[in-house]
Amino acid sequence: RAHINPARSVGDFLIEGLTTARRVPTAEAVRKVAGILREVGIADAERRMRQRPHELSGGLLQRVMIAAALAAEPRLLLADEPTTALDVTTQEEVMAIIGEAREARGLAMLFITHDLELAAAVCDRVVVMYAGTTVEEVPADRLRGHAAHPYTRALLASRPSVADASAELRSIPGRPLSGFEAPDGCAFSARCPHVQDLCRSERPRPAAVGDASAACHFPRTLSPEEAGGHA
């Protein structure tokens, strides 16, 4: 949403790519983006196109960003944290809009998020990254019960428990590393509760773990206790 120029109208932002990159006539571009705005749940599209970004709510601005992406007629939709800073109800609406647009247009989607539960609900496969590298790839419906990498398991365990509100929240000790800080061995070794000497000296390569893969020397599945997300 921060990519929308605050000095320009929403309409100018939406038609710019069509008129400059695709040489679409302005009137045609306006009609096209107005139709897409209505499609993503903005009923009074013409009036909204005359407004500045600060006049729209966060939820409406997110719909504008979705409309901008769809106007380019992509085959692959890149959704980078599309629900950040939105309340739960608006998040559900935004994800429903994206889902309907994907189905109607036959789009593939790369969904980038910090919310593992949301990723599992939206995606077919989940790729977990740490320090700029992929540490695990797993089918979304098997994420919670079959995570094999210690970092993925630690992320799942750090989520609040719905079943037990009194359960203590877990945290991952240490601090996350940037890609340039990664050691010669496993990047997660300094924070891993199962670390061994091999982990510190040799970087693990992704290897098959059932129908998933994990970059870990000693991958394993979740214990029943870990699968519950709390101690």
Description:
The chain has 231 residues and is an alpha+beta fold. It has 2 domains: 10-112, P-loop containing nucleotide triphosphate hydrolases (Rossmann fold), CATH 3.40.50; 126-227, no CATH class. Helix content is 39%, strand content 13%. It contains 10 helices and 6 strands, in the order H-H-H-H-E-H-E-H-E-E-H-H-H-E-E-H. The protein has helices spanning 10-20, 26-39, 45-50, 58-71, 88-105, 116-122, 143-146, 150-157, 197-201, 224-227, and strands at 76-80, 108-112, 125-130, 133-139, 207-209, 212-214. The chain has a 4-stranded antiparallel β-sheet with strand order 3-4-6-5. Strands 1-2 form a two-stranded parallel sheet. Strand 5 and strand 6 form a beta hairpin. Helix 1 packs parallel to helix 4 and helix 4 (58-71) packs parallel to helix 5 (88-105). It is elongated.
Molecular shape: elongated
**CATH H-level superfamily of the largest domain:** P-loop containing nucleotide triphosphate hydrolases
Under CATH at level 1, the class of the largest domain stands as Alpha Beta
**Second CATH tier, the architecture of the largest domain:** 3-Layer(aba) Sandwich
CATH topology-level fold name of the largest domain? Rossmann fold
Order of helices and strands: HHHHEHEHEEHHHEEH
Radius of gyration from the CA trace? Answer: 22 Å
Please bin the fraction of helical residues: 25-40%
